[in-house]
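Practice problem: predict the structure.
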Amino acid sequence: MRDLVLTLFILGLLPVAFFRPFVGLMMWAWISYMNPHRLTWSFAYNFRFNLIVALITMLGILFHRQTRLKIPLRSTSVLLIIFVCWTILSAMNGLRPEAAMNQVDIFLRIQIMVVATMLLVHSRKQIIGIVAVIAFSIGFYGFKGGFFTLNTGGRHRVMGPEQSFFVDNNHFAAAMIMTIPLIYFLYTHSTHRVLRLLMLATIGFSLLAVLGSYSRGGFVGLAMVGLIFWWKSRHKILSLLAMSLLAVSTFWAMPASWHDRMSPVIDAGLTYLNLLDIEEKKPDATKLPIPPGFAPKAIATLPSSGHHSQPSFEILEMLDEDHELLQDKSVTGRLNAWRLALLVANDNPILGGGFRTFDQSTFDRYTPGVYRHAAHSIYFEILAEQGYVGFGIWLMLQFSGLHMARWIIRKTRNEPEMSWANNLARMYQVSMVGYYAAGSFLSMGYFDLPYHLMGILIMTKINVENHYKLKQQNLRSSPRASPAANTGHKPMPWQTGTV
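Answer:
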């Protein structure tokens, strides 16, 4: 039943998307980020709704007379175009050209809709509208995942919709972290009480969903977002107390499996080994701290004499065994992937290895005997696949976006009419900081949301520029005082326009 309802709803809006391409853009954002067809069970589950909507929207742009087919050229948009062209060039000359070109097709479709955003989104209402669609499309899963975490006591991982960019628990956490600031932006500019309560609930459940994802990268990103929120808060003491209370209560409410993943016992073992400085400190073996999970039999092997002595080799061997048992295999895999990224970038410093570099054939070529592993870092992912030059272009693109947000904040600081642009630029910074922090451990270098937000930010800057242009025009066209106004003389007839 839901398959039929969803299909009829989307097909019924296609004519509207053709004659009003902005509606098509919002439909595309809703389908791409929320993936409503993944909530069905029959024929609509694998239907390419987003492709059809994107095609209809692009046709509407071409035939719509009021749409100017001109990309706004700002530093960020220019760098984005250069980076997209670079990915195509690197894919054509990469290590696996056929597989790379398939990924180029996906990446280009994302960037086409980013360009469509810059062509269609102009007014304040349109900017807030597209942000609202993105925020609530992803926030739906944050609300759902947070409720699931609360209902199950955090005993199960929260995942994203199937066959989406954030289906994995780590990617899901990063998407939530980027979305929370957007929801907060909408909260600050909403006057409807019910909507404001719904937004607060979505933020709270999304925070629970990030914790319930069991993602360590998401946990790091969430900590960075919280720090930035506190730094930008006007009531730092109250916000610090509230965040501390929330963090402590949530930390103790999560189950032991969550604590084992977020605070691995290996840290205690490494700390223990660092304390065994037998050359300088010569500690009493009977008073050495026992690492958590250490076998009680190890205590019996400790020397029982009262004098200071070295711990026996049996103890160190048991510590090594315990260390191997506690070591997270993903850490070794990530280190191998990062090592591969450096080897590929050094071998192909200009163009890199192209898309889909992290394949078993590439591992066999550069690191024989090592099983393939995802990049698990947006930085090493871009470096390996786009080379040092492409990585430099990508870095300049990120800095350009942050600098543009800073420019908007500075220009609109004392402009009440543009407070929405000021807050949006601030939340863009918070969202991207969360992306950069969580992305240090995730393969999300080509995730569409950061690029889409850049396109929205570019149009926000144009709105600010137009606001200042209009303000200057009003100042220039304001009526000047009459030359004889302050002289005490009666103006002549030709000066009053009565002749």
